[in-house]
Fold each of these.
Amino acid sequence: LGFEPREDYAHLVNESRGRRVFPALPAQSLLLQKAANQTPHGGGSRIEVDSHEYRLLQRWIASGLPYGDPAQAHVTSIEVVPRHASLERGASQQLSVVAIYSDGSIEDITRTAQYESNNTDLADVSVRGLVSLTERPGDVAIMTRFQGQVAVFRATVPLGISIEAWPKSRNVVDELVFAKLNALGIPPSPECDDATFIRRATLDLCGRLPTIAEAQAFVQSTAEDKYESTIDRLLTTVDHAEFFAKKWSTILRNRRDSAGYQAGTFAFYDWLRDGFYDNKPYDQMVNELLTASGSVDSNPPVTWLREVASTESRVEDAAQLFLGQRIQCARCHHHPFEKWSQADYFHMAAFFSKVTRS
């Protein structure tokens, strides 16, 4: 997914005294002979002699190996059709891809685009964009590439089980989960009993088992809001604050690698714990982390900036932690399965470029 067209051109046309291309007799060029396996080499056959790709390269060599006019229209984006489909197991789907140029023109590039499945256990894709599904259900993405641009086709392959009734939705998370399960044809797990609920809730929120008294009180309660009130109670406990401070200490790389870091490590943990106990708003916590300045002794959130010392690590950590996006790929090339480009990456990096350490 990384591209260096000028270097590629120099290697093909100028390097080794131009031995790879022969404009007088294009078919005798090593570039074509090796690609078509007419001359033995380690890469094997990459294209057929009568293929579109072979003829395209042959015409380019015969025309004098032009690099290309930068003033001409260039590809600004590509689109794949359809972008999403719900398909049965074992089915197939032909993709169509178009390139959009800077002058507004559009070209069908289905034959010349490159395709790649992110899960070959669910689906394979041919060099011409024909997606063939296996017998396994799930979600699969097919990445299409052309001249540095990327588009993604996503397929949902339902399990196909008929679901007659759904549990009561208690919040927006339930609605999203049930919608996804419905799309995949996967029935939800049955509701747990009260003893299981109090055990799971206490473990998830406080990192411990409920006491005997807590478990008995919850199971015996007949209050209509006992689920909501129990969760609210657990969220106000010191156990919850300490448990989530430990979770976030790991996420924010709060570790004592040397004796000199211990004071800052403990201060940062205390700052996180106090924030959870006081129910500090999430946006306020993130703001204090990203804009922290001073020393770790006077301002514990600075500890995170101490651990993510480079601009790249700050960009990638901030995107993953606070935006839920992995943008590491975009540092070197267009992200293969997302919309992020190198320009997006370095635009975000500009926010952190002036952060200094003394």
Amino acid sequence: INNNTIKNAPSNGIYVNTKSSASSINSNTIKSAGKYGIDVEGAGATTISSNKISNSKSNGIFIFNGSNVKKTIKSNTIKSVGKYGIGVDTKAKVTTIEKNNISSPKASGIYVRNKSVVKNIKSNTISSPKKYGIGLDHATVNLIQSNKITKPSQNGINVYVSTAKKIYSNKISKGKKFGIGIYSCKHKPKLKKNSIKSCKKGKIEK
């Protein structure tokens, strides 16, 4: 599903539904969708890349309900969406979320929750999220690395009742709470070489 321009869709801009699959969802422009910009629900995809998504009423990209993105969600530009920039929810799987530019989402930039698994979240740029830059809630992520997060309204990276094995070399600045928050986790992540500047509550809470 490539090279389309979609404006003012009443629901989802692009929708891949139960038991179907899309090899690639690339280089689409989606403006002002009534729900999600791109929704993969109970389905499969290989790559979701180089899409431009703005002003969706809910998530920019939503991977949901057991869906599996086998390679990457990469190099997407997501602006001013109504909830998460990229949401991974309810037993969904993604190999890598990388090099996305997410600005001014009404909730978190990237959010992984409800028994979902992501191998790598790396080299994303997230600015002015109204909640977390990157949030995990009852989820598993192997590596969170080299992300740049500026002006989050809450913690830059927030890990709650989740497994995040490695949090390395992220740059977090000008947050209204902590740079990194680790809460109610059985296995504490390894934290290395993170740069945290000008976060009002402090660098790390755990």
Amino acid sequence: MNEQERKEYFQKLQNLPILSEELADLHSHTTTSDGTLTPKELIDLALQRRLSALAITDHDTVDALPFAIDYTKNKPLLIVQGIEFSCEELPRGFEEVHILGLFIDHRNEVLRKRLVHLLEKRKEREQKMIEKLQSFGFDITFEEVAARVGVAFGRPHIAKILVEKYPQQFKTVQDVFENYIGSGKPAYIPRLDKIKVKEAISLIHTTGGIASLAHPCLYKDEDVVELVSYFVACGGDALETFYPYYVNAKGVSLEESQHKNALVQKLAQEKSLLQTGGSDFHGIIRPIMLGDCGISMEMFERLKERRMNEFKIP
């Protein structure tokens, strides 16, 4: 998607209906990671839909947060500082586990130093992946992708460019993943810096934040129980119990999505965990809209209270 197409997409969102109730959407992404909208556009959309609170949770980066905090001063929207860590637990059978950090402090030096190292290793990985794609005859360079979205790009950005350049070969981003850059595919490179669940939770706690296990039901039901138990053993605080699987997960019906959320809500209650929720809005690559999933402000206030009690933060 080029800049003009991105702007046209944003314009199409201007007629979305206003939300009928006060809601906190605690899972969203901007162009700082793999989202379609800039931080400003995302916030403007949240204001248009009259969200009460919004967490910006870009993958392994907090670069959108300083602008977001400044831009929303004197605006009727509460910005929750967030991040989404991409973790790996291969010995336990989980190739990728996502941990949300909510109510973090993006200025924390321990966090920032770790993110710098993650970024360097991400750049190295993407460079190697692009070199593999070049060896298969694809016309794409690291500089080309970076010029489009910045150096903190990921596989979806690479895939988007290939879809644009080779429309006869790739109809969707998913086509690129399934044929070249998905796990085990010819151009795939494993992560070079593998952050573990326990480290991610520890980093989040270091910043005064709450750690929530994102979309746990992207795994099989029997694996979810094991993953949640491990997450709790590592010190996790919450589960993302409100998530639009029927939109964001391939082949999941609305009924199945409701079943998955009910399963995670039951686990949260059994293990005395807090509950979070959000749309996981990325933009054009997923049909879910910002604010179409989230939690009530009553639940949101309970999250804030837990944070204040545990970290003595006013």
